[in-house]
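User: Here's a chain of 115 residues. Predict its fold as tokens.
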Amino acid sequence: MTATLYGIPNCDTVKKARTWLTEHDVAHTFHDYKKAGVDEAALGAWIAQLGWAPLLNRAGTTFRKLPDADKANIDAAKARALMIAHPSTIKRPVLVDGDRVEVGFKPERYAALFA
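Assistant: Prediction complete.
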């Protein structure tokens, strides 16, 4: 099975994750949010597994530039809609390997996942 790494290519953390996967011979594909957006079903599965809060990147530029009304009173439905409309508001990277979903990149976590 091939893992899928979701993100944007110019993100430093995504670059580190891609390098780690390549250096450790982990078969993977890259899904570029900027070019392909985010699949609603995939996002729904991630939210079902992890919850919406770990996926929503409130610290990023895209989120900070949103109108205050969009950032106020966020619940699951609003977070999902924001992430669909603005995929850059999803924390990066998201790694999907079978039924496992990992958000962010920590070399030790990837090492444990692919041990």
